[in-house]
Every structure is written in structure tokens, then in C-alpha cells.
Amino acid sequence: MSKKLPDEAPGAAPRVRDRIFQTARELFYRQGIRAVGVDAIACEAGTNKMSFYRSFASKDELVAECLRAQVGEFWLRWDAMLAPHAGDARAQIEAVFASAAAKSCSENDCGCPLSNAAVELREAEHPGHEVIREYKRELRRRLRELARETGAADWQVLGDGLLLLLEGSNSTRLTFGGRGSPLSSAPELVRALLAVYAPAGRRKR
């Protein structure tokens, strides 16, 4: 059995790999993926490049891992948002947008990490690309499913409309920020879309 290292003991400080990972997530989100290099990550994490490359094969692989963690956390929040409204797709849709609008009121908010990454990562072969694509496809699928459950006849169109509204309004968080973001109007716009595509009383088909 290998000897347990000091930083693996109960109550010890985070391991070097964990420090690098958490530091990178914060720096990528606040400063941008391209603006942050391996040296900056290692320095901020209190380590060095040698330890970085012992922990991660490359910066690109670290980026992909950070994005996967973000996706996992988002779906946990998604489930928590929908759970109080089980069986009521309209209320679940409204809850998603109400949560997004509330988040836009934070002055520290830097927009959607996945959308930000999609803008920065231009190389098609970058490992983060597939993470982003899978996330966006799943988001579309879930919104379309919620739209179908409202009983909307054109639920595919409604679902895509919700996706466009969520994605578009999220992008304004970077330019407007805080309480001035147009995202704060999204819940009202969602209710208007639902009134057109899924009038109250229409049954699920």
C-alpha cells in the first residue's frame, strides 16, 4: 500500500490537482479562457508548471474538464428548479427563466460559461467543443420536452423559441450586467410565448 501524502489526510488542504482545477475554473470564467495561461493558473494555485502537467495533460484538457463540471452543476440546478413544480410544465418553464433573471441581477455574473467558451474556442478539434455541443443539444431537448408537456401543438417551435430566448438573453449579461440586463424581462416574454403557443387549459397531447 502506498504511503498517504500529507495533503491527502482528513481535514488537509485541497490537493494540488484540486487547487489547479478550482483556480482554473475561476480564472477562465472571470478573465476568459484565452487570456489565462498555464503559468497564471499554476501561480494563482500556489504551485508550478511541473505540477500542472502532472495533473493535466494540457490546458485544453483542463478546459474540457472545467466545462464538464459546469454542465454537471447546471443540470443539478435544473432539477432543483423543476422539482417544486412536478407535473406542471408551464410552471417549470417559468421557473427556469425566473432563475436566470435572478442570476442576471448579480454584479459578479460574467454570463454563461458554456456560451462564453463557445465564442473563444475556435478550433473544431478542441476537446471542449464536444462538451459544449452535447450540453446545448441536451438543453434544446429538455426545453422541447417541457414545451410538449404544456400541450402546445407546435411544441418544437415553442421549445426552440424558449432556447433562443434563453441563449440570447443570457448573452446580454456580459454587455448590460447587473439589474440593467434585458434578461430581467425574459419571464414576462416567456409568459407571452406560452399564451400564444400553449393557451391555458390546453391538454397535453
TrEMBL record:
Chain residues forming the annotated DNA-binding region: 37-56
GO molecular function, one term: DNA binding
Electron transport listed as a keyword: no
Keywords carried by this UniProt record: DNA-binding, Transcription, Transcription regulation
Domain HTH tetR-type, chain residue ranges per copy: 14-74
Matching InterPro entries: Homeodomain-like_sf (IPR009057), HTH_TetR (IPR001647), Tet_transcr_reg_TetR-rel_C_sf (IPR036271)
One Pfam family hit: TetR_N
SUPFAM superfamilies xref list: Homeodomain-like, Tetracyclin repressor-like, C-terminal domain
Signal peptide start-end: none
Protein name: Transcriptional regulator, TetR family
